């Protein structure tokens, strides 16, 4: 899995001619999950979420561990509809971990930003997706938000 160093390098390169979507993903209530069920279970959850992200994107896309319980996914040549479909799949697969791996609920909040629709600056694209993710968390978590748009709860 790529790390924050890769993301920093990517942020300094120019956009190509293709559109792209950036997903900013945060595991909901991860501190509570870690504190109540143990760091071993928390580490297992991080690995499984990373695996879900990798399995639900194309090989040309990038999955990046941003830090802590946050991830960034870069979907190359993807529009808003495609980004939302990927985000929905990720939310669903993560929530299914309760049935297959854990006795405890695990969900993610996802913010989406698009190039060139939302901005032509990579740093701003990351900020927009990050802000959208925080809107998702503030609206109840387990949601997908695109650039402050109407929330979509995944239940």
Helical residue percent?
Answer: 40-55%
Calculate the mean pLDDT score and round it. 92
What name goes with the CATH superfamily?
Answer: Reverse transcriptase/Diguanylate cyclase domain
What is the rounded distance between the termini? 28 Å
User: What is the CATH topology classification name?
Assistant: Alpha-Beta Plaits
| Count of DSSP strands | 7
Tell me, briefly, the overall form.
Answer: globular
Beta-strand content bin: 15-25%
Q: How would you describe what is shown here?
A:
- This protein is an alpha/beta fold.
- The protein has one domain (2-153): Reverse transcriptase/Diguanylate cyclase domain (Alpha-Beta Plaits), CATH 3.30.70.270.
- The protein is 46% helix and 24% strand.
- It has helices at 4-11, 30-37, 39-55, 80-100, 122-138; strands at 2-3, 20-27, 62-67, 70-76, 108-115, 143-146, 152-153.
- The protein has a 7-stranded mixed beta sheet.
- A hairpin with a 2-residue loop joins strand 3 and strand 4.
- Helix 3 (39-55) packs antiparallel against helix 4.
- It is globular, with a radius of gyration of 15 Å.
- The model has no long low-confidence stretch (mean pLDDT 92).
